[in-house]
Amino acid sequence: MAAAAALRLSHSLRNSLFAPTLRTNKSSNLLFCKFSTVNKILQPNDPNKLILDVKEKLEKDHHRLPVGKNGRDDEDMILWFLKDRKFDVEAAVAKLSKAIKWRQEFGVSELSEESFKRIAGTGKAYIHENLDVNGRPVLIVVASKHFPAKEDPIENQKFCAFLIEKALKRLPNEEGEILGIFDLRGFGIENADLEFLKFMFDVFYCYYPRRLGQVLYVDAPFVFQPLWQLVKPLLKSYASLVRFCSVDTVRKEYFTEATLPTIFRD
């Protein structure tokens, strides 16, 4: 029965598969970017000069973009995109300008706890109150509580962006990465959501570069494998961030007894 269910899942998901090239999702104005190989960052002699170069080019070519926090003159944000683009000014400007436009169109600055009382109440995704052993904020998704056929996909996407923002605020001096944990115990066909998985990785790649440190798929059942086989090729080298593991591994390698998430205590 498990094999038959997995086969049905594979067929249904394959129908929704799209090419991972740059495109606009008309329903949410999201830009989906093609993944490229992650390369080693080459630190320049004077990154401050490059930051100023990016600021000047953004002011000249994209003067309508907002300024301030997460705007075209935010030097911390500029540095993240320079690192991601191996300190190529032109490439950083191109990617950063799209990210700032996305933040405007998606209304990221307007997302709040009040906006997501209902969806947060389901317990399907949240930020863990403690950091992991590597000092990373932890975003937990409980897959068995996610029912895409009954929910608004745009609300789910905005909730995801809100949680990413919330996690990043827990980082000291905005330095560091996020650990994502998908609790796949009890996962079934009705919980499968290829679009959301693609959205999450696209968002991290396009708009929060180098902020996702690792993703744990915990106790993945056999029926989850067809979904993973479809999404894995889209991630290219980013698939290396994913680790399939057990609850016991989470307990022993990622948390102390005091900081372990409640859902992994039993």
Protein architecture, described:
The structure is a single chain. This protein is an alpha/beta fold and 266 residues long. The protein has 2 domains: 47-107; 111-264, Phosphatidylinositol Transfer Protein Sec14p (3-Layer(aba) Sandwich). The chain contains 9 helices and 7 strands, in the order αββααααββαβαβαβα. The protein has helices spanning 2-14, 47-61, 75-84, 89-106, 117-121, 153-168, 194-207, 225-235, 247-253; strands at 23-25, 30-32, 125-127, 138-142, 178-183, 212-218, 242-245. A 5-stranded mixed β-sheet has the order 3-4-5-6-7. Strands 1-2 form a two-stranded antiparallel ribbon. Helix 2 (47-61) packs across helix 4 (89-106). The two termini are 28 Å apart. 29% of the residues are buried. Mean pLDDT is 86; it is low at 1-5 and 13-41. It comes from Aquilegia coerulea (Rocky mountain columbine). This is CRAL-TRIO domain-containing protein. Residues 109-266 form the CRAL-TRIO domain.
Question: What are the key terms here?
Answer:
7 strands; two-stranded antiparallel ribbon; Phosphatidylinositol Transfer Protein Sec14p; globular; 266 residues; alpha/beta
CA-CA gap between termini: 28 Å
Number of domains: 2
Helix content: 40-55%
What is the strand content? 5-15%
Output the number of helix runs: 9
Q: What is the N-to-C order of secondary-structure elements (H for helix, E for strand)?
A: HEEHHHHEEHEHEHEH
CATH topology of the largest domain: Phosphatidylinositol Transfer Protein Sec14p
Organism: Aquilegia coerulea (Rocky mountain columbine)
Protein name: CRAL-TRIO domain-containing protein
Domain CRAL-TRIO: 109-266
InterPro entries: CRAL-TRIO_dom, CRAL-TRIO_dom_sf, CRAL/TRIO_N_dom_sf
